[in-house]
Design goal:
TIM Barrel, 29% helix, alpha/beta
Amino acid sequence: MRIGGWGRRLHAAALVPVATAIVLALQAPAGAAPSEYDVPVSPAGIDVSHPQCGRDLPAGSAFAVVGVNGGVATQPNPCLAEQLAWAWESTGALPEQPPAQVYVNTANPGQVRGLVTTWPSAGATPYGRCDGDNSAACSWRYGYERARDSVADFFVPAARDAGVVSLPSRYTWWLDVESSNTWQNGSDDARARNRAALEGMTAYLDSRGAEVGVYSTGRQWAQIVGSVPDDSPLAGLPSWLAGSSTLAEAVAACALPPLVPDSRVTLTQYVPDDLDRNHSCG
């Protein structure tokens, strides 16, 4: 599974039955056999990232979401500038969706921190001071620093090279939470530390005035993060749900539970072929 763009296929186990039920109940006219074409169609958005470097990107998308990283949180997308320039050529046909958006890879390698050079050894956090151990404090600090580097070292220089807006506050920033990245596992405490890493990323992006959302499938989110408390900074963030293969499934997925409390599903991703498309639930 590749992160971002063509081929980023995430599967939610219960999605197809739910999609079928909702489409049959809500979209089929009386006396007619339902089909995918009964679903209300809005202009689609497209998301791309490093796997599309050097490829011609399609024109005319309503909005675009570009991956800032090169598959892992510590590396840049090598063609970020070109893809940001392309994203700003989106039509902006959906008022509820900014024409150019971005997403960042997320992770928490605290259980294998001896194998990475980026694990923090100090710093203040809402969980106390980080001392280099595998703790919620250092997990939060790790997320904060990955978001900071993604913005300052990767995104801002690329946006300037592209001649487009480089203010993080002018973009929606999605936190891409997938099992293909390195996460802590095996206990509720491990999932709580993963949640702390995402809270750290959110804190940095908030400090830059950016809008923040979360992307995943329900299954992967449950495995990596688990339940999010109502008082977590993640509560209330919009949800972008992956897992659909067709437009009908993507429309139905708008009615699925969001990833965090006090949230709603605002985007759903569907991958009918080799191109990631996105439906706005607006």
